[in-house]
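Interim report to the steering committee. The following record documents the input for Amidinotransferase (310 residues).
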Amino acid sequence: MAQSSNFSIQAPSAVVMIRPHHFTVNDETAADNRFQVAERDASDLSPLAYAEITRAAALLQEEGVAVHLFEDEGSDTPDSVFPNNWFSTHPGGYVAIYPMRALSRRRERRSDVIQMLKRCYRVQVVIDYSGLEPDGLFLEGTGAMVLDHIHRVAYAVRSERTNPVVLQRFCSQFSFEPMLFSAKDPRGADIYHTNVLMCVATDFAMIGLDMITNSVRRREIVNRLERTGRRVIGLTNAQIENFAGNVIELQGENGRILALSTTALLSLTPEQIDIIGESAKLLPLSVPTVERAGGSVRCTIAGVHLPPRN
């Protein structure tokens, strides 16, 4: 089906990705990330994850997405492949830096990434929330929040990684309406990050509705999404487990694309694929090793919503 080539502030045309040299599954984050796969011997995972990110970045570049690819050669940042948690960028020249719950994840913050953004894009203000960490207040970026940049709504699942006070502060400073809700997996565990549960694209939204515990709040979220003119694609619990919610819309050279993992694509129904295909080209990326750490394609991509200098 034909995809739209119209520009959308929801779909960034540039991204930041981190290529890991010492990837492993992070034991420190396993307590509340049920998407992780425990590893007895993860010594062979690093070259596989490195190759997956290398190939994913190349495929995005082939579609016309500008990829700022950074190397992580450190051995004490096992989740560095997921940069979307520690910073986000916003139209108008704003950058946010976030407070992270795990000590190992705080080491992921990199001044060279921020300096690149300032060098290549028009950055007006950098707001750093990381000073809230000693107070036990966390908001893990666009993992904790799924942002509707067009209609200024921040969808967020309650968890130990999403503090309502910090969420409200972010929304006040960045002019978003907070939509906070509770969601649990079939085993009764809290969903740790909102971006494994849902994606907001320009013309559609994908969301695991059955995991939202309050039926009234569930209806409010659907209504809020539908009021923006989006088609709401409900995802089953099994599809969420296969990372179908952990996807991101990007702007390619020939129109919008939906970057998702091959795992996620295989879980979608033909009808869901057709709905997405009316608005965006589906671009499957194979990241099975990275997914063992509890995140998928969306987690590996930090969108750049800043105006370029050139």
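The mean pLDDT is 93. The committee is asked to note this result when reviewing the revised timeline.
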